[in-house]
Structure prediction request, 103 residues.
Amino acid sequence: MVAFLKYSLIRLALFVPLFILFALLQVGWILAVVFAGLIAFAISYLFFQKQRDAATAAIRDRISGRAKPIRTAGEVEDAEAEDGLVEQNPDIAVNNDKRPGSK
Prediction:
C-alpha cells in the first residue's frame, strides 16, 4: 500500500499547484478543478508509469487476497494469548474456521 500512497501523493502534488494557478487566473472554481484534474492526470499518466504500475499491483494484491492481512494490535495480542493457551493445554482444540458448514 506504500506504492499506492506514494502515487496518490504525487498526483495530489501535481493537482494542488495547478488548481491554485487556475484559481488565481479566475477561470472559476469548477473549471479550475476540471483543468487541474485533467492536466494532473495527463502528466501522471505520461511520466509516472512506474509508480502507477506499482500502485496498481499493490491494490491488485490487496484485493486478490495475496497480501499479508492487516491486523490490529488487539488482534495480535488475542492471537498470541490463544496460541499460548493452546500450547499449555494440548487436549483443547480450537477451530477458527469461519466457513459455513465447517465443524
Notes: DSSP finds four helices and no strands in the chain. The helical segments are 2-24, 29-47, 49-64, 73-88.
